[in-house]
Amino acid sequence: ALKMAEEPHYLTWSIETVAEWIKNLGFPQYMACFTENKINGRKLIYVNGSHLPQLGITDFEHIKIISSEVRELLGIEKIPWNRSISLRHRDNLGLYLEEKGWTGEKADALTYQEFLTTLEA
């Protein structure tokens, strides 16, 4: 788990670092899928089973493995498709990553500590 003010390290990953990570997972054949689509650490937040075919990854078993590895890297749980809207909000890290996924000055400057402070307000 993240310490209070600690930023997730993968948010600063370059496109090349993400491609290398994919290679190290055992999928060197997909490195180009990630580099050609300019997937850096921030964009990795949005990579899931629904988006992988758009990147050119169509093997269902590979999609399941890569999606699982991305969730593990991000430290977020899989959200069931039938999750009730009456349940408590998702974990703080998941909510933070949604905010960091945006581009722009405000998202660039947002730290995990600041985000936690806004949640408590």
UniProtKB/TrEMBL annotation:
Ranges where the SAM domain occurs: 13-76
Protein name: Sterile alpha motif domain containing 15
Organism: Latimeria chalumnae
InterPro entries: SAM (IPR001660), SAM/pointed_sf (IPR013761)
Gene3D superfamilies linked: Transcription Factor, Ets-1 (1.10.150.50)
A Pfam family annotated for this UniProt entry: SAM_2
Classification via PROSITE patterns: SAM_DOMAIN (PS50105)
